C-alpha cells in the first residue's frame, strides 16, 4: 500500500508540474500581445484590450481544469469536486469563451487591419486611404480623421441594425470568395454607392449644409447623387487594380 501511495504521489506531482509548465508557457506566449497592444493607447478600445486578455485567461483555465480533472481523477467519479471541475472546464468555460469570443470577433471585423488582411484584393485601397498625398474621399476622411476609427467599416456600412446585419452577411461572402479565389479584379461594388451612407454623417453637419445649400433638396429627394460631383474631383479611391497571384 505504501508503494502504491508513493507512486500515486509521484504521478500527481508530475502532472502538477506539467500543468504549471503549460500555464507558464501560455502566459509567456501571450506576453508579446499584451506589450504590443500598448502602442496605440490613445485609440485603444478598453473592451477589446481587456476582453482579449480575459479570453486568454479563460482559455488557459478551461484547458487546465479539463487536463487536471482527466489526469487527477482518471475518469473515475470521485465525488462532486471531480464533476464540478470537469463541468467547469468542458461546459462553463467554453460557454464564456463562445460569448466573449464572438463579441470580440464582431468588433474586430470592423477594423481597417482586418480589411487590409485580404492583401490580394484590398491592399491598394488601404494604401490609398492612408496616403496623405491622395485626393480620394477615403484619403481625405482618413487623413483628417473625420472618422476616428474603423474608417472602412463606417463608410461601407449603412446606418442602424439592418446596416450592421447586411455588412456581416456581405463580409462572410467576401471572405469566402477571397480564400477560394473566386473574386474578380478590379473589384466592383454590389450596387452603386448609396447617398444615405454619406448623409448618415454629413446631413446635419454645419459645414456640409453651408456648402450644399443650392442642391440640398435635390440630394434629399434622390434627384441628385453625391457621386455626380465627387466622383471625378474626389474619387472614392485612387487605387490601381492588382494582379491576382495564386
Plain-language structure description:
The chain has 246 residues and is mainly α. The chain folds into two domains: 2-37 and 44-108, no CATH class; 119-233, no CATH class. The protein is built from twelve helices and no strands. The N and C termini lie far apart (65 Å). Residues 25-39 and 241-246 have low confidence and may be disordered.
Keywords, please?
mainly alpha; 246 residues; elongated
- Report how far the terminal alpha carbons are from each other: 65 Å
Q: Helicity level, as a percent range?
A: 55-70%
Describe the sheet with the most strands.
Answer: none
Count the strands?
0
Question: Could you write a compact summary of the structure shown?
Answer:
The protein has 246 residues and is an all-alpha fold. Helix content is 67%, strand content 0%.
Annotate the secondary structure layout:
Layout lengths: L1 H35 L9 H28 L6 H29 L3 H5 L2 H11 L7 H7 L7 H5 L4 H20 L15 H8 L3 H6 L4 H5 L6 H7 L13
Helix pairs in contact: 1-2, 2-3
